[in-house]
Design a protein that fits this description.
The chain is mainly α. The protein is built from 17 helices and 7 strands. Helices cover 45% and strands 6% of the residues. The two termini are 47 Å apart. 34% of the residues are buried.
């Protein structure tokens, strides 16, 4: 309850700022003109400033108990706020008791000067806590200006993390995840801090976007309590989500360029939008997505109601990225059957962590344009895996932590279009994996620790 009450600090802190500002404006006008406000007006403003400042300080203390802020910066902000409250109380008392004294104007004028200083410093520290220590600095203005003029002329030569990923974090995430404000104990200002994770552990699992907490949170509906960015903040666009998902699946590297990570047609369609001029550049080099008719809105809405997030691959494409993100354990074979209504449009399908059985593979095998399939962390077995050989456009298959055996691997080997295969924590023998690598050297097999 204390933490909840403390959340009203950012709202109520504007009350003393407003009262103090009105009081200072009146004092300024009286000194440069014949304007006279009246003694009662000043007394009311001073008393209101003092009371609201005290309340705001108490709520600020409650908010500080959440532990989400930089301790040193928070301590400075707290004491500046307290001294400002004390000074406003003293000025109110002095104004009421010593107004008639000859030395009053010297004390009063000095107090006005101190209020201006304390209000400025307190506000500066508050802004730094909320938006980062450099938020109100002139150097940050220069950095932002330089950021805005940087253009990616050749998307294939762009360093994925520094040129594409970190700018997204800076724009949408760092305001709440910086050295001043440690929301969830997570820092997102550098690659190293990002990989450290937060209070709940790692937020990125390299080569496994489906199990990366970051991707789960940015794909939650805005009404969800854990959705990121939180309600009221600017959400990530479909293209930004796609870029982050691809970057993690490609290994979440720091220094590799786009060309080194070998993006497929789908992600290249997204990446070119981050290049200066967008799709106007390198259109001949960018593979086009298959053309399909649009899925019926009612069918898409029905699938979303079941707990799946359905998004277009690109603005000019009818292909869909379908990911189950809500109540995964409730998603079974029967719900998978509902996807047949959009089987022609599904390009990416994420059923990771769901309760599907091998029966669902027969349904998935009908998705004629399926390019990526995520079925990790499911209880699938070797049965019906051969059905996937019907997917002539399937290029990526994630079977992380799925109890399939060598027999299942032989069935997967019949998928001629496959380019990337994830086989961490399976029952497949390492010798069988090595044999597949020799028979298909172009197939990239990502293997961690096998059972």
């Amino acid at each position: 309850m204390i933490n909840f009450i403390g959340k009203f600090h950012p709202l109520l802190v504007h009350l003393p700022i407003g009262f103090i500002s009105f009081w200072l404006i009146i004092e300024f006008l009286e000194r440069i003109s014949s304007y006279k406000s009246g003694e009662k007006t000043k007394q009311i403003l001073l008393i209101s400033s003092a009371i609201s400042s005290i309340i705001s300080s108490v709520l600020g203390y409650f908010l500080s108990l959440s532990g989400e802020y930089n301790v040193e910066l928070l301590d400075e902000h707290k004491w500046l706020g307290i001294w400002l409250s004390v000074l406003l109380v003293l000025i109110s008392i002095i104004y009421y008791l010593l107004k008639s004294k000859i030395y009053f104007k010297y004390i009063y004028n000095g107090s006005i000067f101190l209020v201006c200083i304390l209000l400025t410093l307190t506000g500066h520290h508050g802004g730094s806590l909320t938006h980062g220590e450099q938020y109100l600095s002139l150097s940050q203005l220069s950095e932002n200006k330089n950021e805005n003029v940087v253009e990616i002329k050749d998307i294939k030569q762009a360093v994925v993390f520094s040129d594409l990923v970190q700018p997204i974090f800076n724009k949408k995430c760092v305001a709440c995840h910086n050295t001043g404000k440690l929301k969830g104990g997570l820092l997102m200002d550098t690659y190293e801090n990002l990989l450290k994770g937060g209070e709940s552990g790692a937020v990125i699992i390299a080569s496994n976007s489906a199990q990366s907490e970051l991707i789960k949170l940015i794909n939650l509906e805005p009404i969800e309590k854990r959705a990121m960015p939180p309600k009221g903040k600017i959400p990530l666009t479909t293209d930004e989500k796609a870029l982050l998902t691809w970057w993690i699946d490609a290994g979440a590297t720091k220094d590799k360029k786009v060309s080194e990570l070998k993006p497929d047609a789908a992600i290249m369609a997204v990446l070119t939008k981050f290049q200066a001029g967008g799709n106007a550049h390198n259109t001949d080099e960018t593979p086009s997505l298959p053309e399909v008719t649009a899925a019926a809105d009612k069918d898409v809405q029905a699938i979303q109601m079941l707990g799946a997030n359905v998004q277009k691959m690109a603005n000019n494409s009818n292909l869909l990225d379908v990911r189950v993100i809500i109540n995964k354990k409730d998603w079974d074979d029967k719900k998978t059957e509902n996807l047949s209504k959009i089987k022609e449009q599904v390009y990416i399908l994420d059923l990771s962590g769901t309760a599907i059985s091998s029966k669902s593979l027969n349904e998935i095998a009908k998705f004629s344009n399926l390019n990526k399939l995520f079925i990790q962390n499911t209880n699938l077995d070797d049965a019906n895996l051969e059905a996937l050989s019907n997917l002539s456009k399937l290029e990526s298959l994630n079977l992380y932590n799925v109890p399939i055996s060598d027999a299942g691997l032989k069935k997967i080997a019949s998928i001629k279009s496959l380019k990337k295969l994830f086989l961490w924590k399976t029952k497949i023998n390492q010798n069988a994996i090595e044999a597949l690598k020799k028979s298909n050297p172009e197939l990239e097999i990502v293997v961690g620790i096998t059972a």
